[in-house]
Structure formats: structure tokens, C-alpha cells
């Protein structure tokens, strides 16, 4: 905790004004056509979940407590005065000023396109082209609504993956089981024993079920391969790799799903060829940087089988060429985001766009960043996305749309955030978990269905089947401010200067403001003098 001195209520009011304004600026602000358009926001059935009693009485008091205590207003009552949660407490006008928020207008008129296709006005507008444009339009993102809830697990759902055909969905959980879902029917197809002894972190199909299997990684350090026969029986179940610590991420090499890459908290990257039943260690992060640090994510280029990227307890995203890795590997390129706080230095997830021209990285804290993969070494991000909260778990981030038109991410506050990739504007916020923390989310490879999982032992399916939603701007503003306040608290609570033990026994001195589970323990950090006295750090400031 922070220490003995200082009132918590005073700390909450000291959030940096510039940081909050940066978060609020991610909303598209357009001139109102008339005054009533913002005073009479319509509410659809999908927004009713925002008012659910279970959300306000969530078990995760630490995560949702701020929203619960600061959001006691009616979604329909626009006469209520806005209680601003700092940093504008000194400004009376800001306290009563609601955010004038509107969705950005779509650059594709679905009604006009539909009429033109029906009347044959555009010969090149095939049904495939029309569906392609519709799935990548803002209209579909705005209409996303919870379609079904799949129940079979007994623990948190940590990972989700559709098979290449899109017919099956696999989910992995803390209960160490894999469940294959016939998601269209809303029921499990088969439950598969994974062979893991601890939480499953990732599960991916190698190919279709008829001729492939599933690769999994887990907290027990194992990377395993399970092949499921068409009748649902398990024909193969074996261990491919054993990491010294948790195995966080796996990926398949493009155009060759038999080659598996994995990384873990031990800092090692392994390559396994299923055809030769051979596993080799490619390198360790200590080979590249001279010090070992945990890796949380690995991603293979969708069109270049030789390229892959890794990320972890560092603000760098490293790119490698499999053909050039030797005993002394060197990253082909290094991309990084200049962190405003040490807690933002950790990359929890990376993913390539559909064509591999862009790479998305989720940083701990409140930001995700988009990199152009054609840029040279030490390139900075070309786009940034703010507002969500990423502290508690190693959660994923992903693209949405057939051409990666949107960015989506789960959050510790239980919401799912959607941004327009090009404009960086926040375009939708959905309540994904009543207990908080959305861990995993993945879109269907051929349609606009979205699957999400989190702390609840269920898988939720979303589809654009609802009406045109109009979110209450003040609700979203309060969610953003609550997330900003949590970031401020974490930066204070986990600031300590000490030694971080690495997987190889080496140590490095740095400022620790984020404590990943099972990697850095509080007792491993020697408290500095200012912390022993219960004071704030001398260099403490708002990032």
C-alpha cells in the first residue's frame, strides 16, 4: 500500500489533468445538430446491462468500487448534475459539464449500398463484397449485442480460438480442461482433458479438426498437443515443451501449422515441428539483452513464415527472422513506446493485422499502440488507443473486422473497448464481465461473431443483432476516469527501487511499478528508505 501518511481521498483528487484530458480526447467530439440530440440519448436493450444490480455489487470490490461509488445516477435522467472525479475538482464549471459525445459517422452508407445492390446499380457489388464491407463497417460494431452464453467450465476462461473453418470454438480455463464448442448450436461438442496441471493460458487450433489438433500452454510450463478425432475421442495427447516457468503464449508459423513457437516466463523461445517430433531452443532473452526477462506473447507474421515477434517484461517489441537465428541471436528490428511510467513498460499481448503490415501491442496501464511493420529499427507507434485498464491479468488484444478496421480489448473494469483503427476514436464500450476483467476475446474468421471470456466460468458470444446503440456519454466518462484513477494508484502503490531476480539468477536494478503474478514478489524487493518511513518517493509525480 501507499504508506501511513496521506489521505486517500486527497490522493484521488490529484490525478493529472493532462492525462485525463488525453483519455477524454479519444472520444469523437462533433458539433451537435441540435441541443436535444445530446440531451435525449436513446437506450437499447443491450445497454440495460449497464444498470444491472450484479454489476454494482460485483465481488471484485477493488476494481469496480470506484464506479459503484461514483456512478449513482440514472442512465435516463439527463438533469442530474455531473460529479466530476478530479482532476477538475477546482473548477466548478468542469464539475457540471457533461462530455458531449457522439459516435463518428460511418464512411459507408449501408442503406444506400443495400438499395444499389438490390436494384443492380453497381455490377461489381457481389454479395461477398457487400458482406465484406458490412462486417468492416461501424454499423456492425455499434450493434454488437450479447447473443449467447456458453456454460461448461468451472473456472476463469483465459483463452479462446476459432478453428480455420469457423465451425468450432475452443476455450481453455483454470479448471485445466479444453472445451470444444459448436457455438452456432450453443452447446459443447466435446470436453477434452488437456493434460495440464495448472491454469491454461492459451489454446489454438493447428488446422481444421478433421486433420489437425490443438496446441496449449499453461502455468505449469508445459506446451502440449492434443489431437481430437472426428468422433470426439482424443487420439494424441503429448507434451511438446517444458518451460522452466509458466508457458504464456504459443503461435503457429504461417503456411506451416506444423511448426509451433512458444515463449514463457523463463525468457526462452522454443520451436517444435510436429512432423518430426523435434523441439529446439531458439534463444533466451538473456542472449539478446544480456539479462533474462519474462515473455508474455509471441506472434507469427501471417504472410511471412520466417518472421515472428515477441514481447514481455520490457517496452520493446522484438522481431526475429527464423532463418537467421544462431547461437547469438539478434533482433531484426526493435519497436518501442516511450513509457510515461515504469508500469507502462510491460507488453502483455501482441498481434499482427490480417495482412501483417501492422502489429498491435497492449501495454500495461491504459494504452495500446499500433506499429507499422515496414518501419526501420527503433520505430515509434503510428497510432495509440487509450481508456481501458490493463493491470491484473495478462489479457489479450485483437483486431476486429475482415481488414482489421477496428481495435478491441478487454479491461480490468469488466468492459470491452472498441476503437476505430485509423482515427483512434473510441466507438463502443460493452459490459463483458459483471465480476470484472475480460481476459480473452477473438472474432470469427468469416463472420462478425465475437467470443469473449474472463473471470466468469462462461464464454459469451456477441453478434451485431441489436439496434443502433447510443451510449450515455457521462457513463463512459466515468468509466474512463475510474480507469485513470486506478492507474494513478498502481503507479504509487508499486513504486519501489530494488532488485528483480531473473530466471537465470541474474539481477537488474530498475523501478518496479507493476508486479506480474508469480514473477515478482513483494518480499523479493528491498524497500527503500522512503518506503520504510511510510513517505512518498521523492521523485513521485503523475505520469
From TrEMBL:
Gene Ontology CC annotation, any one: cytoplasm
Keyword Repeat among UniProt keywords: yes
Ranges of Acidic residues composition bias in the record: 9-18
Domain of life: Eukaryota
SMART domains attached to this UniProt entry: WD40
SUPFAM superfamilies given in the database record: WD40 repeat-like (SSF50978)
WD repeat windows: 150-182
Entries under Gene3D superfamilies matching the protein: YVTN repeat-like/Quinoprotein amine dehydrogenase
Region (Disordered): 1-43
Positions with biased composition (Polar residues): 27-43
Protein keywords: Repeat, WD repeat
Protein name: DDB1-and CUL4-associated factor 8
Species: Trichinella zimbabwensis
